[in-house]
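Amino acid chain
________________
===
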Amino acid sequence: MQINFLKKTDITQDEFIKVSLMVLQSFFLGFFIYYYFSVINGLFTATFPIQKLPLAYIHSGLFGFLLTNIFIKLQKKIKLSYLQIGLYATIIIYMLLYLWLFSSENIDFHFYSFKSFKPFIIYVGFILFFPISTLLILGIGNMMLKLFDLKQGKRFFPIISSGEVLSSALAFISIPGILSLFSEDDTEKGTIVIFSLAIIFLFAAGLMQLYFNFKYKTLINQNTQKAKSNNTPSFKSIIKNKYYLNIIFLILISTVVFYIINITFLKETKNEYKSSNEIIRFFGFFYFVYKLLEFVLKTFFSGKLLTNYGIKTGLFILPIVIFIFTLLSISSLVFEFDSEITFLMIILNMLFLLVLKRAFEDSAIKLLFQPMDSSSKLILQSIGLGNTSQISIIISGLIIYVISNISEDNLLLYILISVLFLITFWFLSISKVVKYLNVYIKNSLKKINIKFNNNYIESTDIIKKHLSLASKNSILEFSKNFEISLQHKAILLCLSTHKNTSNFIIEQLNVTSSFETRLFIFEYISKNKIDLTNQHLQSISSIMNDLFNYYSCILFSTLDLNYDDKNNKLIELLKYELSIVEDLLFLYLEILYPKDQIALIKQAIKSDKLHENILALELLESFIDDEYKAIIITILDNLSIKSKIDNLSISFDHHRLKLNQRLNYILNSPAYWFNDLIRIETIDLIPTNYEIKNSALLSHIFNSNKSIKRKALHKLSLIDNNNSYSSNYLQENKTKNILAKFDLIKENLNIQKVSENFKFKLYSNGIVVNNLTSKEIEKLNNKRYVLFLLNGNIKLPFKNYNAGEIVNPIKPVLLDKSMFSKDISYLRILHQNLVPFIMSNPNFAEQIDLNQ
């Protein structure tokens, strides 16, 4: 059952174990953080006047900044496995000590403005909550970076965070129930019970970390020594790098707004509820609703929004909503609405701030760190999410402190106005981050060591070169050969001479279905930078939609055939087709966008380095149109076949099929979709239980392609056990297994940079000679043949040819038997039959020329 689940969810066994353990640890941490959070917030709000909150924020930020810097320093020096255990052990010891002090009675204490010990210990617990939660979040973030690569992180982060979402919701909803067990006089006992539960769950999370250290110690600690020697980003380098600086500024503004709005929320809550139990119960209900909404948005909307609309939308959605609710809150104060309406606006403002921040902004900000190199990412993430957050707490505390000194009566109104002012900078910050994200990715890709082929020759130039080297008869053969399409001839022969060539070539997009012709058209348009009208773009768009549909069909076919090793050959042919479609896709992108930029992206995507793949996809996603964005990113992304199918099935109507249905589907598909060799291999896989009546096999008995027809007849002779169809269709000389014979010679057919289907077509147009006779010599002398040597050698007056070479002399040579070795074997093809192959494949044309 587990194996079936893993197949359906496209998760490996190792990934499943890691994700399950991380979800469990996240689940335990959720209970600890939010039990602690609810109780300490309620106690602080009930104990102190709201004027004390700015000072508490400043103190919390200072402690947090100090502790985060210590953590970052230790992160550079200590193995992660030791650092994580030390972190959990330290917090557990602190919590046990804190619980003991909190429950202690009659401690004589007087310090600063604190007249007794209880308020002091509540104040300490409040200001240390934010640093502790920040360190735990950084710790679990470090674990995720070690256990998963970036691609896995995109898939599994929402799943892992669901553990914390679920446990925090349970924590919040359970708090009122726990407190209801105690009377008003025993309020403190209920608080102690919740604190005790928090410590138990923290201890459970620590045990999970011990298990991680035992099971994945090598993985967690890998590259530690390397990281120590790396030059981690300094303060100066962060200031100079506009991308780094703007990310930090964005986090700073966002977090400042968060804590200022939180102050308004706590202020209004204190006005509405008086006792600590009432406040804690309210917090339990409020944060339960928040976690419920967060779960819904994260599960069903967050990933789709970021995938379909990008990081920019994920960052902008929060300040837009906060701007609206802050404006409504200000309006309720200015126009003196009922206090309950103001309280509702403040609550909704805080609720949407929490929900949208966790569901969208946090994920989008994490994605901003993805383009960074691995040596910098961990430290910058700690600085951005650690140090910057603590500085934000200090700044928000100072802002509230200043405002409270200016006006006590209109404190809430002035705080909300300051939020509107900060949101303006928030919008500007997001715009700059998105701008410098694209700049950073471009600069990063330029640093990649990519070797471009400076000797590249336009494919049409190679073919024209062949025509100039060939005889006049060859050009005549080409112009009269009906196997070469009119469009193809026009493109090759009229490129630079015909006045209306450009218009003619564009028009062919409306009538051609050949991938080869499309390839030539796209190359020509890209090279000559032809201005395209809307009609031209629509034609290209229609072609690409058909191409994407074909790509989707290939993926479904591959998945349907993947269960049996006997289908491996066909699967390899299908995968090669996928690469052809991807090359056509890049040519399409070169038509629409700067060629050099697309070439850079292509090289990065084709590399085997995951970091470069991600950079290239991020850059591509930033400028391609929305029409096919999701499809193109899915095709070029390094996803599994199943994941690609899940994404593409939304746009294209393909389904999983059983073997016979899939084989029929391939054979019945448009003629230009699957090449000859794929169709022949498909026919070869037809099983004995195949339903012959009205089948695709019968239709291919009448195929104009002789090779496909012969293969269909041969397969029919093998599976028609009752001779129901054999007597009508079969002829003795038509039942040879052409595929089996091709398999015997294809490895010796030494032609570079061509597909297996291309070789098969050559083979189908020629004859393999293993026995050299006088009649064969006579044939070679009477007509112009090209010989592909499979074995042995041929000695001509001007050159010796060995196995694997192509014999294609320009000048006539009178051959005799003495020129051939005894073990000679070759494939001979009439030169005029080779012309379509030469015209359609520049690599082949070049190899033919080299052997003249």
Observations:
- Residues 224-230, 450-460, 469-487, 493-498 have pLDDT under 50 and may be disordered.
